[in-house]
Amino acid sequence: MKLPIYIYGHPVLREVGVDITPEYEGLSELIENMWETMYFSDGIGLAAPQIGRAIRLFVIDADPMKESFPECAGLKQTFINARIVERSEETCSENEGCLSIPGINERVTRPTTITIEYVDANFQPHRETYSGFAARVIQHEYDHIEGILFIDQIAAIRKQLIKGKLSNMLKGKVSAHYRTVTAPQKKK
């Protein structure tokens, strides 16, 4: 089932996700729905807060990026209860976008290499190191489960330039080819 994507301004996007157990109700169906939603929305990653759940869960399929970024080949994984345990001092800047902030792309500087610990959809533990664009995609989705959006990490001048678009999103004015949920509107 295709789920709606929660848009910038919705409070759930700022919540820090909680760990889950294999007994989390409807987990298999939720993961399946997240994959379907991500593909339908033309994303390469989707975190649970983006579909209204403040839990430590995200899915990534960066394989379509392998032509430009060979390190993304075969990167298709469910990450549960993830923790980034190491980040390189070396950084790199690249353009990023987000399904929860449609129509905005900005350069974000991130560590080039990370080590992450997580459990997969079968709750098997993993500790893996990723570099390059693969590390970027993981960090972007990881930020979501920490209540952080990519626009929090852009230069102040760039933030000023997109202020109008963000303001429109806060007012519920959003254009996307997928279903969305905007922030609750304050009553006048």
From TrEMBL:
GO BP annotation list: translation
Record flagged with keyword Lyase: no
Positions contributing to Fe cation binding: C98, H140, H144
Superkingdom in the source lineage: Bacteria
GO MF annotation: an example: metal ion binding
EC number(s) per entry: 3.5.1.88
Keyword Hydrolase: yes
Cofactor: how and how many bound: Binds 1 Fe(2+) ion.
Enzyme class: hydrolase
InterPro entries in the record: Peptide_deformylase, Peptide_deformylase_sf
Cofactors named for this entry: Fe(2+)
UniProt keywords, alphabetically: Hydrolase, Iron, Metal-binding, Protein biosynthesis
Catalytic residues, chain numbering: E141
Pfam families xref list: Pep_deformylase
Catalyzed chemical reaction(s): N-terminal N-formyl-L-methionyl-[peptide] + H2O = N-terminal L-methionyl-[peptide] + formate
The protein's role, per its UniProt record: Removes the formyl group from the N-terminal Met of newly synthesized proteins. Requires at least a dipeptide for an efficient rate of reaction. N-terminal L-methionine is a prerequisite for activity but the enzyme has broad specificity at other positions.
Record NCBIfam families: pept_deformyl, PRK00150.1-3
Protein family: Belongs to the polypeptide deformylase family.
Protein's name according to its UniProt entry: Peptide deformylase
